[in-house]
Amino acid sequence: MTAFLNLKLFFSASVTFTVVFATHILLAQSNSIQSQIEQLQAIENQENFIPTFDYIDQLNRLGELYYNRNPDSTFLLAMKSLKASEQIDYNKGLVDAYRNIGAYHNIKGEYNHAMSFFKEGLSIAEKEQYWLGLANIYNSMGLNTYERGDYTAAVNYYLQALEIKEKHLSKLDQSKTLNNLGLVFMDFGDLDKALKYHTRALKIREEFKDKTGIASSRINIALVNKEKGQLDEAINQFNVALELGIDMNNRQLISVSYFNIGEILLTKKSFKEALEYFEKALLVDKERGDRVGIGFDLLGIGEAQLNLNSLRLAKKNINESLNIFVESDIKSNIDKSHLLLSKAYEMENNGMQALHHFKLHKLYQDSVINLETEKQIQEISSKYEFDKKEAELRQSQKEKELLNEKKMERNIRNGVTVILVILLIAFLLAIRSVKTQIKAKALVTRQKNEFENLNKRLLQQKSENEKITNQLFQVNETKDKLFSIVGHDLKSPINSLKGLMQYVVDEKLNQEEFLMVSTQLRNEVEQVHFTLTNLLNWAKGQMRGIVTDPIAFSMHKILKENINLNLPISEGKKIKIIDQLEENTICFADKDQINLALRNILNNALKFTHKGGSIIVSSKKYGQDFWEISIKDNGIGMSEEALSNLFTNEIGGKRQYGTEGEKGTGLGLQLSKDFITKNGGEIKVYSELGKGTEVRFTLPSAYF
């Protein structure tokens, strides 16, 4: 089963790639191979081209990117880098070039040849103290010995790489070596140590938010839990890896997670759920064109279907997987395929076919067992050697620690003696200067206090000046606004009034003609009076604040007064003002202020309602303590922009004219809001362009 799983595990191959090229994996993620090729060609096509350090580094990085894609390109680029590095005496470039050449021979299975290049680069890296290159070569040597089955040597090389990274490189680099150590110990069968190293790697990767690394560690931890029989925890880890795969759109990671969850569900005899996960993995592997992965998925599907008694489908899928494994020469899975086919035919009572496949199963099983036996003997021997060496290292470390402790004690004694002598001399000098210091300190303290008092007075004066300046600015601003309104909004109706009166005098009108003109005169006077009232109330509120004198009063009464007051306007525009107030709408507020607020709101409704329109004034209880008054018209309405700027504090700005060109100061609604708010109420406006406007405000009820 172990051999069956290893080929499907995503990180058996991908982590190896990370080990060899730990330093530059981020570069591979951010730059495409094509863009790097174009950069190198541009550099080489320059006149009088001479290799530079950056050029050589790019050659080496590109070689690393080609490692799993096209090893021959890795070799050619490494040879070009080697030649250029020798030309300009760039030792770091030589180290990386030797490592890439060794990696090429490693992937070809030429392990001894690869090791000779690694050692060549290692000697240069040690002399140069090129820590990054040194750590990477130790990783490569660890991979070399790991693939040859020499686990003790592999662990030693990885530990040397880890030691360099802990002293000189980043934590993220350390996580890659910790991950590789976990893989070695997992193959070694030491699951506790494997879990320890994978957990350390995961913590670092989570700290740096390295999603690819986190997924790698999660899958490796899941595999350790799976081997230890902790199946629920393994499923949890694979689910986390699956979420990361979906987030990163990593199809290979998604496939591996689905497949391994299916394997665990098979073990737990949850055959229907297992079948679903194998089928999900198959869809992903078909998208990726991963033929070997498809073989594993089909075998898992077949095994689940066999347990669900779907014999025809099970045989079909197992036979398809068998063909793939025969092509790929994966003996352990050929063995398993024949065993499952034997069971299927046995369930169909086809003894001849069952026996045929069982014999093939035994034949392949014997070859797999021989390979496993050799591997186990090698693992036991390697483990013994590693444990022996680890014990020797611990003993050597203890002896070094004892020597260091003795040396430290001696140094401490000498240091304490020197410190005591220095302290004695310092104490004598301190006694001589203490009086001078006390006097100087007293003088400094006195001067400091005087300075702080002076600074406080200056800050207070500055604050007062700023306050006065702000007040003057606000008063001046209010004065300018008042002059603006007086100059523009009162000038026009007063001139109109003056013209009408002059016309009456000059033309010597009879009584009938005078009565016709007097209606217009009255309207003009009312408009001037209304504007002046608003203006004076607003100015008083701005300068002294709004003072309320609340009493109980009937909204019916003040509504009736305002309807009568606006009768010339409503009759002139043939607008109906409909009183739908509740009979007992008795409010407790400043009657004059609310009267003026209602007049302003009603005046606005008349101004923006077309001829023949209507205005409905209604009321209803708002909670237990308030009345809500509504003034709703079917006029021209407002846009969302106009509605949002309705209650700004600016006056004299852009105005909206009424349906017959009526003008206003812009004070009305602002003044109404101020009065209503000051009397404990709230005001809200609802409007839609072309459909009318509704103003609602609340006031305290006089009776609860």
Automatic annotation (TrEMBL):
PROSITE patterns referenced in this protein's UniProt entry, alphabetically: HIS_KIN, TPR, TPR_REGION
InterPro entries, alphabetized: BphY/WalK/GraS-like, HATPase_C_sf, HATPase_dom, His_kinase_dom, HisK_dim/P_dom, HisK_dim/P_sf, Sig_transdc_His_kin-like_C, TPR-like_helical_dom_sf
Domain of life, per lineage: Bacteria
Sorted UniProt keywords: ATP-binding, Coiled coil, Kinase, Membrane, Nucleotide-binding, Phosphoprotein, TPR repeat, Transferase, Transmembrane, Transmembrane helix, Two-component regulatory system
TPR repeat segments: 95-128, 135-168, 175-208, 255-288
Transmembrane segments: 412-431
Gene Ontology molecular functions: ATP binding; phosphorelay response regulator activity; phosphorelay sensor kinase activity; protein kinase activator activity
Residue intervals of the Histidine kinase domain: 485-703
Catalytic activity: ATP + protein L-histidine = ADP + protein N-phospho-L-histidine
EC number assigned by the record: 2.7.13.3
SMART domains named among the record's database cross-references: HATPase_c (SM00387), TPR (SM00028)
One GO process term, biological-process aspect: osmosensory signaling via phosphorelay pathway
Coiled coil: 441-471
Gene3D superfamilies: 1.10.287.130, Histidine kinase-like ATPase, C-terminal domain (3.30.565.10), Tetratricopeptide repeat domain (1.25.40.10)
Name the record gives this protein: histidine kinase
Organism: Cyclobacterium qasimii
